[in-house]
């Protein structure tokens, strides 16, 4: 499994760099520029418009959509509704990042509604997954949410976990400095939307993206002196990594 998945990570990365999918991101104010830079470094094209009347045009020409709830406001809430409607009509994959749902009942309610609108992937940290699933956020909860929503559910952390309700992978490695850079998770979910644009098997797309992010973070962490120098090193690693650098980091749990 791990060897095949590693080969696929390289293949999907090559596809990403060749096809340069545009990922339309409706994301939070803290994440906009970093997310755009991560997408560009990896080989995608970002667009970040949240003005509702412009959103349909941006989605029509895009390859995938990111919906991130980090700084929800009325404008973004409307943009998200419009964007998901158009993405579903156009048959484009979209990824949900339910940032801080554990801190706001309003946001949790919205995230649960959105989870029923067929996201291809839901990517969350453990606290967010726990809130969304009303449980401890463990593997069983991820599996159940994947079966209920039809999404691939990804829980990130020191070790990442992904499941489509049947298949499961763990991805280890990366670097703890990831957790000290705001929008690390937001940008990873955006990148996952990019992988969804080049691979129809959403589980394999998610697993490949996790392996790529862990490998790039590990390389960046080897030279970084703290969060400040980690960021440019991480962008450089996303830009420069080759398939032989991935290692066997994808494993069955
Ligand atoms: N302790 C850690 N060691 C290695 N990688 C980590 C660690 N914590 C988080 N990451 C990585 O940082 C990214 C963001 O994950 P996480 O912190 O769980 O999400 P969020 O930023 O949304 O809270 C993921 O790619 C994850 O693998
Ligand atoms: C700090 C902050 N506040 C609202 S959204 C946000 C960014 C969260 O980024 P991430 O979930 O990737 O850590
Ligand atoms: Mg997050």
UniProtKB/TrEMBL annotation:
ATP binds at residues 123, 156. InterPro entries: Hyethyz_kinase, Ribokinase-like. Substrate binds at residues 48, 183. Keywords: ATP-binding, Kinase, Magnesium, Metal-binding, Nucleotide-binding, Thiamine biosynthesis, Transferase. It is an enzyme of class 2 (transferase). The keyword Transferase applies. Its cofactor is Mg(2+). Its EC number is 2.7.1.50. The keyword Kinase applies. Gene3D superfamilies: 3.40.1190.20. Pathway: Cofactor biosynthesis; thiamine diphosphate biosynthesis; 4-methyl-5-(2-phosphoethyl)-thiazole from 5-(2-hydroxyethyl)-4-methylthiazole: step 1/1. GO terms for biological process: thiamine biosynthetic process; thiamine diphosphate biosynthetic process. GO terms for molecular function: ATP binding; hydroxyethylthiazole kinase activity; magnesium ion binding. It catalyses: 5-(2-hydroxyethyl)-4-methylthiazole + ATP = 4-methyl-5-(2-phosphooxyethyl)-thiazole + ADP + H(+). Belongs to the Thz kinase family. Catalyzes the phosphorylation of the hydroxyl group of 4-methyl-5-beta-hydroxyethylthiazole (THZ). This is Hydroxyethylthiazole kinase. It comes from Tepidamorphus gemmatus.
């Amino acid at each position: 499994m791990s060897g095949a998945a590693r080969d696929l990570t390289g293949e999907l990365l090559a596809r990403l760099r060749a096809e340069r999918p545009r990922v339309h991101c409706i994301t939070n104010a803290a994440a906009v520029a970093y997310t755009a830079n991560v997408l560009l470094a990896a080989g995608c094209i970002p667009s970040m418009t949240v003005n509702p009347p412009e959103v349909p045009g941006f989605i029509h020409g895009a390859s995938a959509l990111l919906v991130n709830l980090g700084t929800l406001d009325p404008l973004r809430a409307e943009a998200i509704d419009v964007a998901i409607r158009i993405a579903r009509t156009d048959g484009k994959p979209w990824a949900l990042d339910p940032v801080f749902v554990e801190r706001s009942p309003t946001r949790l309610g919205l995230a649960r509604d959105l989870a029923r609108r067929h996201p291809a992937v839901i990517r969350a940290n453990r606290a967010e997954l726990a809130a969304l699933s009303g449980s401890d956020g463990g593997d069983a909860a991820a599996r159940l949410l994947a079966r209920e929503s039809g999404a691939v559910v990804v829980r990130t952390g020191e070790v990442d976990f992904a499941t489509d309700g049947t298949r499961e992978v763990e991805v280890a490695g990366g670097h703890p400095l990831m957790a000290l850079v705001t929008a690390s998770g937001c940008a990873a979910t955006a990148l996952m939307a990019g992988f969804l644009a080049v691979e129809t098997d959403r589980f394999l797309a998610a697993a490949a993206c996790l392996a790529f992010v862990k490998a790039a973070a590990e390389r960046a962490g080897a030279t970084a002196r703290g969060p400040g120098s980690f960021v440019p090193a991480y962008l450089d690693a996303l830009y420069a990594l080759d398939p032989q650098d991935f290692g066997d980091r994808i494993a069955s749990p």
